[in-house]
Design goal:
Layout (H helix, E strand, L loop, with lengths): L27 E6 L1 H4 L8 H16 L3 E6 L2 H8 L9 H24 L5 E6 L1 H5 L1 H16 L3 E6 L6 H5 L8 H11 L4 E6 L4 E2 L11 E2 L1 E2 L4 H6 L12 H13 L3 E6 L5 H6 L6 E3 L7
Parallel strand pairs: 1-2, 1-5, 2-4, 3-4, 5-9, 8-10
Antiparallel strand pairs: 6-7, 9-10
Length: 290
Amino acid sequence: MSLLCEPDNLWHSFAAMEGNMIMKDTERIVVKIGTTTIMRESRTVNLRTLDNLARILSDIKGMGNEVILVSSGAIAVGTNKLGFTERPAELRMKQATAAVGQLELMHLYDKLFAEYGQIVGQILLTDEDVEIPERKENLIRTFEALLELGVIPVVNENDSVSYAEIETGHNKILGDNDTLSAIVAVLCQADRLILLTDTDKLYECDPRENPGAKPVDVVYEITDNLRAMAGGSGSSWGTGGMATKLIAGEIALKNGIEMTITSGQRLESLYEILEGKSVGTRFVPKKQRS
């Protein structure tokens, strides 16, 4: 992910809001995990992370919450399984790799969540599923049925048939999985959206290149200044960056859903987020401001 620094910007950091939010006893939560969190630097699947994710989400569900997981990684997992040294360049090979990777990814989720007594179900989406009213209504009913049955839906874009996102990083509606997760949160009327990424929060500029970069703790609205801070994709494995997370944040804020950006390397922070502690960067809608 790339964040741009401007030396004389007029940005003022927001004050942290820990403790001023009214917490619900139970919530409907959408958690999105990115490819860079799922995959190791060696380009193999990070099984430890996936197991921790399954354990913690299962525990959170056991507290009475409803959990929906939006997971990237199909092409990266397929690339590894097929023995490729890099992500395919040709569209048809990307789609074939996604078909293999999605099956492997769901096999891992099914196995790991089952270890903690949970059942998962797969939902693969295309633009038409959220654009055509009849399909959208069917999709909403499917989500509701799965949650009613106690199933954890695992959602991804259907990369084996959808081409715009894997070719350009931008699809007509769904965008990448940051945007997809926000759309899913709206469709499911979720209380909370959590984006697990490769940085612990939003910064004024890239902390990897600028160690003195100031963090942004709370966002109330997506401003032009925030957009100017965000750059493009941060990894050859994924398609997202901070810019797509701001798009997700804008969707969430407009629909009254609190969103948090936090590090996927410290999954235990999911508990802290639910406890109302100051973790990562919080996007707070109007109805939750004190």
